[in-house]
Amino acid sequence: MCFVQFDPWNPEFVAHPYAAYRELRDQRPVSFFEPTGQWLIARHEDVNALLRDRRLGRSYLHVAGHEEFGREAEPDFQEPFWRVVRAGMLDVEPPVHTHLRRQVSKAFTPRMVESLRPRIAAMAAELARGLAERGGGDLIAEVAEPLPVTVIAEMLGVPETDRPLLRPWSADICGMYELNPTLEAQHTAVRAAKEFADYLRELSRLRRENPGDDLISALTRVELTEDELIGTCVLLLNAGHEATVNVTGNGWWSLFRNPGELARLRADRSLLPAAIEELMRYDTPLQMFERWVLEDIEVGGVRIPRGVEVALLFGSANRDPEAFAEPDRLDVGRADNPHISFGAGIHFCLGAPLARVELAESFGALLDLDLELVEEPTWKPGYVIRGLESLQVSV
User: Fold this and answer.
1) Which of 66, 152, 168, 218 is the most buried (most CB within 10 A)?
2) Strand positions, DSSP E, 237-342
3) Within 13 A of 367's CA, how many CA atoms are on the CB side?
4) Per-residue pLDDT, 238
5) Residue 334 in contact with residue 64, Cβ under 8 Å?
6) Could you tell me the CA-to-CA distances from 167 to 24, 207, 247, 362 in Å, in that order?
7) What is the pLDDT of residue 38?
8) Torsions phi, psi of 288, nearest 5?
C-alpha cells in the first residue's frame, strides 16, 4: 500500500515514500512543511542546484548569531554534542570547512583507500562465508554492519577490544539528525557524543606519543586541533558507517524485489559498479539533507526567505523522471545515473571512494552465495537516515 501524504513519522510513509514524492514533484515541488518549519524541495534540478549554492549552508553561525538569525540557541545540555559535531567538517562552512577538508584530505587519500581494498575483500569474503556456513541469518547484523565498522575501526586504529563501542555510539549520535528528535533521543545523542569524544581524546593522545600507521596517527601530523581531530573521526564513523550499512540492506531488499535484475547481475559481474550506483539511487539511504538559507532565494518561482531551513529530498530527487529514464525501475546496468546520494558541492561526501570499495567487495562476496529472502523486512522508525531493522536470508 502506498500513502501519498508526506509524513516522516508515519511507518507506512517511511516504508513507501515514493508515491508521496511523486505528488510533491508534480504538484508542490517547493512547499512549506509546518511540523518542522522547513521548505521541502522535491525535484532533482532544484536539489542539485541548492547543494552547490553558497547562499545556503549547513550552519549559519559563520554569518550570524542565533538571535540575529531569528533562531533560539540550542539548550545548554546539548553543548557536548554540538562541540563534537561542529569540530568536524559536515556542519561548518568556509573558511573553516575549507581548512578542515584540506587537512583531512592529506591523511585520508585515495591511495590510502585503495590500499585497503585487499583487506576489505578478505573481510567481506569471511563474513559471507560465515553467513553461508550458518545457512543464512540476518544479512544486516551479520554482514552489512560488521564490515564498515571493522574497516573504520582498523583505519582509525581502534583496538579490537573497543570496537563493539562504535556501532552504538554511531547510532545514538545519528538520532539527533532525525526530524524533531524526542528529548530522550537528544539526551542519548549527547551522552554518546561525549563518551565517543572522551574515548578518542585519550586514543589520539596515545597516538601522538606512539604513532602507528593508522588514520588517527596521520591526523595528528596535520594542522588540526584536538577537537577538530575528534570531530573528524566521529564524522568518519557516522557518515561512513550508517550510509554503507543502509545501502547494503536497502540494496539487497531491492534486488530481492527485482529478481530479474538480481539474476542479470549474478550473470554479469562487470555490471557491479553501475549496480552499486543504481542501488544508491533506487532506495537512497539518506532521504533528506538540510541546509540553512543565508540569503533570500527563489526556487521554482517560490521565494524562500533568509533564516529558514530547506529540506532537500534526496529520495525524491533520485526518482525524478526529469533526471532519470524510468526512475521507478531498478536497472543494474543504468549508464546515465546522476544520483545525488553522496551530495554535491563542497559537502560532497569525502568518504565516497571508501564506501564504493566496501560496497563493491560486499556485494561481490554475497553474489557468490545463493541468497534467498526468508521474510519481508520492516523499516527502522528513522526517516532521514532510512534503513531496515533486519534482512533475514537463507543460503
Assistant:
1) 152
2) 288-293, 297-299, 302-304, 309-313
3) 23
4) 82
5) no
6) 35, 22, 16, 18
7) 95
8) -145, 140
Residue owning grid cell 554540538: 82
Neighbour-count burial of 36, counting CB atoms closer than 10 A to its CB (0-12 exposed, 13-18 middle, 19+ buried): middle
Residues ≥6 apart with Cβ < 8 Å to 259: none
Give the strand pairing for 309-313 and 38-41.
Answer: parallel
DSSP annotation string for 114-183: HHTHHHHHHHHHHHHHHHHHTTEEEHIIIIITHHHHHHHHHHHT--GGGGGGHHHHHHHHHGGGSSS--H
Q: Which three cell numbers stand for residue 329?
A: 525501475
This prediction's pTM:
0.92
Domains of the chain with bracketed CATH: 11-24+65-270+346-394 (1.10.630.10)
Contact 210, 278 (CB under 8 A): no
Q: Which residue in 285, 276, 277 sits closest to 364, CA to CA?
A: 276
User: Which contiguous run of DSSP H or E holds residue 197?
Assistant: helix 183-209
pLDDT attached to residue 243: 82
pLDDT along the chain (395 residues), means of 10: 74 95 96 95 98 94 90 92 91 91 86 90 97 96 93 89 90 89 95 94 91 89 90 85 90 98 96 97 95 96 96 98 97 96 92 92 95 95 93 96
